[in-house]
């Protein structure tokens, strides 16, 4: 049975402003590569042959970097939405480019997860499901759509954000659709899979299953979460085959210049052509290409924009400067 994938990368990333003024959220650097690269590698590692990137905001920035996918071991195609069509509309639009396949893995463009995608695919086939949702357990489900499961792992109900969630299982942003189910989504219309497609399928007794996996899961929708995701990948809290090889708990570009007495730790990333002057402490932070950091600075859990200049002696705590 052949499997293709669609990656939803059309969103603007308003919660990530000002980081997304010039760069769409999926192209922001996380552990030294654009975030989307981690998801493309995850698809390739699970044996998926092709992936369609469903783009909209700043769509022109994706193809020059990812090309036809050859260097990632997967065929990459690009679907552009002229105006944002929502999750369902975006999936339907992107599906027009798919080669013949039996099932389609849909990735949300803003989730970093350690979940077992090959295991989810196997579960989907074993249960002959129409749709299989990847679910994870959270302490507080109020910020997310929550899901009620029956004992056989079929989905009983799909509930949008609510004040008193009746379940702590949430939709974790990776779905497997049988190919023909996607064709039922209206073409060229704004459709939400969470609010329309899933509830409609449940109402018509479609076989919607939940695959529960409680490994690492993070929504990278805020600057603080983006910094955490990057540091967790560098320190090995979560593994991704897209993370560049590095020694220790930092990733420093060979073209960066680091002054004497500097301590760079806790998953920090120093990108290309960065200059860090002497006696700086950089912890859990991302320093963008070409940035210059004056001496005796302390930068903790922060992002410094490419090309930004930080004056000597500055202390930067959980901040996002130069965007």
Automatic annotation (TrEMBL):
Keywords, in A-Z order: Nucleotidyltransferase, Transferase
Keyword Transport among record annotations: no
Domain Mannose-1-phosphate guanyltransferase C-terminal: residue ranges: 248-315
A Pfam family of this chain: GMPPB_C
Keyword Transferase: yes
Domain Nucleotidyl transferase: 5-233
GO molecular function, one term: nucleotidyltransferase activity
Protein name: Mannose-1-phosphate guanylyltransferase
Protein family per UniProt: Belongs to the transferase hexapeptide repeat family.
Stored InterPro entries: GMPPB_C (IPR056729), Mannose-1P_guanyltransferase (IPR050486), NTP_transferase_dom (IPR005835), Nucleotide-diphossugar_trans (IPR029044)
Natural source organism: Candidatus Nanopelagicus limnae
